[in-house]
Amino acid sequence: MANQTHQTKTDPKVIGIVSYLTIIGWIVAIVLNNPKKDLASFHIRQSLGIILMGVVASIIPVLNIVLWIIPLIAWIIGFIGALQGEKKLVPYVGEYFQDWFNSL
Hints:
Elements: H1 12-19, H2 22-32, H3 38-59, H4 64-84, H5 94-100
C-alpha cells in the first residue's frame, strides 16, 4: 500500500464566508488561504477593515452604539457578498481596505 498525501483544497467562497465569522474565523481564513485565492483574499481584506472599524467604533464611548451600526451594515454587505461568491466592496471604504491590506 503506497503512502498517499492528501491535500484538501478549500473553496475560496467558503474561506470568504469564514473570514466574516469573528476574529477567530478571520485567522482561520488566513491559514486556509494558502495558496492565495483571489476571491478569498478579497473577503479577508474586507473583513479586516470591518473588524478595525468596529474597534474604532468601540473606542469612542459617547457615540459607541451609533457608530456600531456602520460596521454592522458593512459586515452584512460583506457577508452576503461572500455567500453569493461575489466581490462586493463595502460602501465608501471597501476600496481603501483592498489597497491598505493588499498583502493579505
